[in-house]
């Protein structure tokens, strides 16, 4: 951590931890206080033709992209070496699969952003926080795709696993390598910063629906019965914690 | 045998005048909020017609309800669990808002603010979705009284299988109204379709509800319900549905649609049923056997064995008593005149219908029907095969026999009453020919024609000692103090317990003194008006 300027410390250490804190506390708060608002807020009722293509492509593309980040960023380079994956193989796999994911994500998000901005029925349901999340996501996606396709697939390649990845993992082990990220190309820096911001707005936007993907449905019985329980009624929408904004209309 | 209770409704279609009062009062109570403009928990359709949303009855298009797979096992028609999870980002079976009708309001302001001029100002229609001007093209009751029928009515899925010639005549001579609410099914496919597990059936009374706090807006319930009676609130992003007015039912009151029904045609009561038999009944191989299969699920509340089993299952005594007097049991099981709507969806619906007879007789009248020969009623019912087939598509998965049997019975009830009124001779065998005794037909007449309030609605209240607990099960949708005469309405609330039961005696306004345990005379502040003397307020002397 030698020679790091204050700005660098703020940007590459304080900001990530701050957004991480907001991410965690925000989720606890939202979960306790706003069960009623915790929804995917689907607009399929209003518009289905664009959604039919945009939504599945975007979501499945995102799953691929997340998997790619787990492999590329969370798993250290020496582990892949240890299991005997040579660097060129890794690079071509990462560039190829990464490009596929990138194409899916960018295609999906283009369709989704288009309908959100230009289909009046959909636009009418869009809140301020949705625009914030959308813009941040667009930045993350574009700055993520440009190096994947431009540098790793077509260009000479850039080993982010030696710079961005150690810094990122360092955040979680308590010793982030500021110099590594500070000297990474600008586009990676923007990508990382915007990603942190997404984490920051996550709990306050409709992105929370991601945590509610109902895998449990595969195992549960079809018909759900509920009986009376001897409990106090919850404050509507709060999950029982009585945290509630004053003047909330419901 | 696992006995459970389910509240249910029967509607006597003969009496529906299509006034939409039920829809309006329901809307005022439950769906007069932003996001639910297009939602009618209760709607009234003119039949034949495509319905609301368009063609909802065609499950080859919408894939609602259940179906049997190749091995005869019950499966959601829209596919298994994995398929549901994989299509969660885009539900291929979801109707769009245009299938219901884009909700609109009018720009009334221009009427008020228009400058003085020679032309009358007009109010534009404004979309409730976008707030912009729009062209109104469809709505929930655009087919009212066969409006546009020549264009649309042919799209009615229930006309499938009827010959072309028959169809055309049918539209000219015949129509009736079909009021619809959620069926509160015994085997609800909406609940089964909900990936979040937010939808549930109440174990005590069978009402099917959406937990607003656990719904995540996956909208599988909307497409999963073959009756399309779960709706997506486009403002909150959550599913909503008919609640069977559970706060009223819990208080022993009829639902709003029933209470306000102008034709007084709705009946509410309990069914006791055997929960162990539900899935087998729903998996009956032949769709036309589903009506009988569902009947076999219901238990006879007069049977002592059933009563004992019900009591053992924790069903309160007054509920069992209410089940014995249940008008829906009488109509559906004892008299067998009520039929389920679209049993072929295999959800075992719990809102049943008495098929309409009047239009049949009316047509017959025109054709020279002879009131002296009530038997002719039967002949005409059989002659008028068209509506029987249509009704069969609605109520018996296409089997005309039960429809014919019901219509004959209803006709016999009329014939007997007519004969009584006009002093005509009656064929002694008439009741027997419809499989009933004269007394039974008389009971049926009372239930259908006299239809007293207390006979139509036999609703045992939820147990008072459990009232507070019930509230824990769902959102508190209303203030619990706002019951009639309750403190929230300016009344005193129920008496009987604690401080409310205390009434000062003696001089009004004066508090009471009493001998305290320590031997001193003390003053009871309860009931003191704050002005009169208060002897012993500060007790004197030594405590003993
Ligand atoms: S009718 Fe009601 S209970 Fe039956 S599937 Fe539809 S919403 Fe569910
Ligand atoms: S209020 Fe009664 S008579 Fe009027 S439309 Fe509704 S069900 Fe029919």
From TrEMBL, chain A:
Cofactor list: heme b; Mo-bis(molybdopterin guanine dinucleotide)
GO molecular function: electron transfer activity; heme binding; metal ion binding; nitrate reductase activity
Species annotation: Streptacidiphilus pinicola
Main location: membrane
Subcellular location: Cell membrane
Name of the protein in question: Nitrate reductase-like protein NarX
Protein keywords: Cell membrane, Electron transport, Heme, Iron, Membrane, Metal-binding, Nitrate assimilation, Oxidoreductase, Transmembrane, Transmembrane helix, Transport
NarG-like domain ranges (all copies): 9-228
Example GO biological process: nitrate assimilation
Entries under Gene3D superfamilies matching the protein: Transmembrane di-heme cytochromes, Chain C (1.20.950.20)
An annotated GO cellular component: nitrate reductase complex
Domain of life assignment: Bacteria
Record function comment: Does not seem to have nitrate reductase activity.
Family label: In the N-terminal section; belongs to the nitrate reductase alpha subunit family. In the C-terminal section; belongs to the nitrate reductase gamma subunit family.
Membrane topology: Multi-pass membrane protein
Pfam families: Nitrate_red_gam
TM helices/strands, residue ranges: 6-29, 50-75, 95-119, 131-154
Positions bound to heme b: 59, 69, 191, 209
UniProtKB/TrEMBL annotation, chain B:
Coiled-coil ranges from the UniProt annotation: none
Region listing for Disordered, in residue ranges: 486-513
Needed co-factor(s): [3Fe-4S] cluster; [4Fe-4S] cluster
EC number(s) per entry: 1.7.99.4
A Pfam family reported for this protein in Swiss-Prot or TrEMBL: Fer4_11
Gene3D superfamilies xref list: 3.30.70.20
Bias-annotated ranges (Gly residues): 486-498
Subcellular location, record wording: Cell envelope
Keywords linked to the UniProt accession: 4Fe-4S, Electron transport, Iron, Iron-sulfur, Metal-binding, Oxidoreductase, Repeat, Transport
GO BP terms, alphabetized: anaerobic respiration; nitrate metabolic process
Domain 4Fe-4S ferredoxin-type: 7-35, 173-204, 206-235
InterPro entries associated with the record: 4Fe4S_Fe-S-bd (IPR017896), Nitr_red_bet_C (IPR029263), NO3_Rdtase_bsu (IPR006547)
Keyword presence, Lyase: no
Main location: other
Gene Ontology molecular functions: 4 iron, 4 sulfur cluster binding; electron transfer activity; metal ion binding; nitrate reductase activity
GO-annotated cellular components: cell envelope; membrane; nitrate reductase complex
PROSITE patterns: 4FE4S_FER_2 (PS51379)
Protein name: Nitrate reductase subunit beta
Organism of this sequence: Streptacidiphilus pinicola
Lineage: Bacteria, Bacillati, Actinomycetota, Actinomycetes, Kitasatosporales
Gene: narH
